[in-house]
Amino acid sequence: MRRLLFLLIFGIAGTAILVALGNWQVRRLAWKEAVLAEIETRIAAAPEPLPATPDPEADRYLPVTVAGTMEPGELDVLISTKDLGAGYRLIAPFVTETGRRIMIDRGFIPTVDKSAARGIGAMTVTGNLHWPDEVDSFTPEPDTAANIWFARDVPRMAAALRTEPVLLIARSETDPGVLPLPVDTVGIPNDHLQYAVTWYGLALIWAVMTLYFLWRTRARSRSSKE
């Protein structure tokens, strides 16, 4: 009886813990979906003028329209997308009508178009402010000789282009040969449903194995008595 009681308590406790972890992931899923919905609403909102002092947290994803001059001297960020394949994001300096220098993420070009001429000069650009978190300890150093960067490092790019550390990711076209890659929520991880299913699955397996061991232990006990 002691062994059966131990198995029962152990099984119930383990199942309860796994179910609790699954419930926690369900709550996290609801929270993340609310966050993503808020971000999507913010991204699609009506554009505003460029803030005087953009804040990387408060103004992340803020829709902005700027008028001014696209200047030469772009930085090419090597990327690869599922639909478009390998290519570059073009990060270019932009001088607003008020004289501020910021960066514009103009969008995507295939690798074969790296040396192609692109339109510069006066234009109006609509997009979203963003400070991408793409740099880690594995990010290679930029190949400045070939003008190839491996991440959008806003402070470092701003220093290279002599602009404010402000990046506007265009959602309007700035050149016929450049495909805008607007900000969206696709790259924001939301794996809580998978985690919840995993924890609930483990809870079910734990419960089934507990019942099996209880049955097996009881069956052995009866057999030994006989």
Strand order, main sheet: write it out: 1-3-4-7-5
Sequence stretches where pLDDT stays below 50 over 5 or more residues:
none
Terminal CA distance: 17 Å
SSE arrangement, N to C: HEEEEEEHEH
Radius of gyration over all CA atoms, rounded: 27 Å
What can be said about the biggest beta sheet? 5 strands, mixed, barrel
Class by SSE composition: alpha+beta
- Coarse shape: elongated
Taken together, the total number of domains comes to: 2
What's the rounded overall pLDDT mean?
91
List how many beta strands DSSP finds: 7
How many H/I helices? 3
- Percent of sequence in beta strands: 15-25%
Relative helix content: 25-40%
Structure report:
The model has no long low-confidence stretch (mean pLDDT 91). It contains three helices and seven strands. 37% of the residues lie in helices and 23% in strands. The protein has a five-stranded mixed β-barrel. It has 226 residues and is of the alpha+beta class. Helix 1 runs antiparallel to helix 3. The chain is elongated. This is SURF1-like protein. Belongs to the SURF1 family. It is a multi-pass membrane protein. Keywords: Cell membrane, Membrane, Transmembrane, Transmembrane helix.
